[in-house]
Structures are given as structure tokens and as C-alpha cells.
Amino acid sequence: MFRLVKTVGVIIGYAALATTKLNEMDRKKDLLPTVNAQDKYISLMAKKWAGRILDSAGVIVEVSGDNQNDPQPVLFISNHEGNFDIPVLVHAIERPFGFVSKIEVKKIPFLDDWMMLLNSIYLDRSNRRSSLQMIKDGVASLKAGHNLLIFPEGHRSKGQGLQDFKAGGLKIAKSAGVDIVPIAISGTSDIMEKYNSRRMVPGHVKVQLLEPIPASVFKEHSLDEVGQIVRERIAHALES
Fold first, then answer.
1. Do the beta carbons of residue 75 and residue 150 sit within 8 Å?
2. What is the Cα–Cα distance from 220 to 240, expressed in whole angstroms?
3. How far apart (Å, rounded) are the C-alpha atoms in residues 91 and 85?
4. What is this structure's pTM?
5. Cα angle, residue 238 at apex, residues 235 and 240 outer, rounded to 5°
6. How far from chain centre, in Å, is Cα 23?
7. Could you tell me which residues are beta bridge partners of residue 156?
8. Alpha carbon distance, N-terminus to C-terminus of the chain
9. Of 238, 234, 218, which Cα lies nearest the Cα of 226?
10. In order of start, what are the domains of the chain with their CATH numbers?
11. pLDDT, tens digit, for every residue of 131-161?
């Protein structure tokens, strides 16, 4: 319980402190020459936040695969095990990126401002118009040079195995004409979800950045087929 309370304190305290610097960071990023450089600058604070959370929780992250900060925008597609997926991925991935996140996150104090500065997008799953707007916003963000990450399972698996993928989010990559980078993450559910989020234990998490799937895949495959290709690659990586 002590570790859980300590980590929650780090999350709230550091988020509150970092929020005071938002306006200054927003102003300074505009002085940088490229979108990628601007996003990388903004992500530095998020990475510090994520690193402190992982340190307080005793989480070690092992990263494999091509983790270069390539300026070409991509859509990251990751499985979703547990609550720690977000700080782990922010910490692990060198490219700056925003999340496609459920609308409920918008209500969390301090977090909404950061989500917006990271070029994240909200989705209200109960509203079909929101889904259409999410795709439109996602395409615009990718075309502007930002990276995005989605969890196509739609919810945490909590260590119960890879769930079905919803292919709708793939419309973002198809319409924007960007590559897809599958990500396999494992071990986060062992930190909290195994104990119904009432406890927190140290853990070892693996993040595998898999071979990119070129945008041309949509010329030969439907959205559902591409979703299955991505899911199979992630499933294979989780089994290895």
C-alpha cells in the first residue's frame, strides 16, 4: 500500500508542478524549426514524469526494436495490458507521440492540458459522431507531422490475454497514408491489475517495437485484414 500511495503522490505532485510550466513550454516550442523537434521538446517533461512514476513503483523497462526518433509520422498500435502502459510507453518510445484516449481522461485534473500539448485526441465511445471526429482529427494530426498511438483493444486486458482488435482506428493510418508500428507490451498488469489495483508491486516490463507495416498494405488488404495482421504480429511477439 505504501508504494501505491507514494506513486500516486508522485503523479499528482509532479503533474501539478509541470502544469505551471505549460505556457512557457508552449511558447518556446514555437521557436524550434520542425514539428518533430517541437514535439520532442514537449515530450521531455512527459518523459521525466513517466520516469519518476516508474522509479517510485520499482518498475524496470526493457525496450527492443527500432527505437529511433524518425521524423516521418507513424501510427503506433499497442496492446493494452494495464494502468502502467501509458507511463511505460511514454518512457520507452523515443519518438514523441500523442494518445488516442477515452473522453473520461479529460476530467482528470492537470492531465488534460498535457494531453492537448502532446497532440492527443479524445474519443467518446458512446457517441458515433465522436468516432468520426476522432478519425478526422487523427488524420489531420498525422498529416501535420505528429505521431499518434492507439490501443485497438479498447480496454485493458488485465493480464487475461490479447483481446480482439477494433479496426476502426486503422482508418487514421489509411487516410493519412502513414506506416503502422505495432508494439507488444507485457508485464504491466503484474504491477497493479493482478491485485485489483489495491496494491502495487515492483515489476519488469518488456516493450517490443516491431517491424513497421508500410502504408501500402491498404492497397492489398481491407481494414479488418490489416487489423488482423497487426494483432497477429503483436500476439507472436508476446509469445516469444
1. yes
2. 28
3. 10
4. 0.90
5. 110
6. 23
7. none
8. 33
9. 218
10. 2-239 (3.40.1130)
11. 888 889 999 999 999 999 999 998 889 888 9
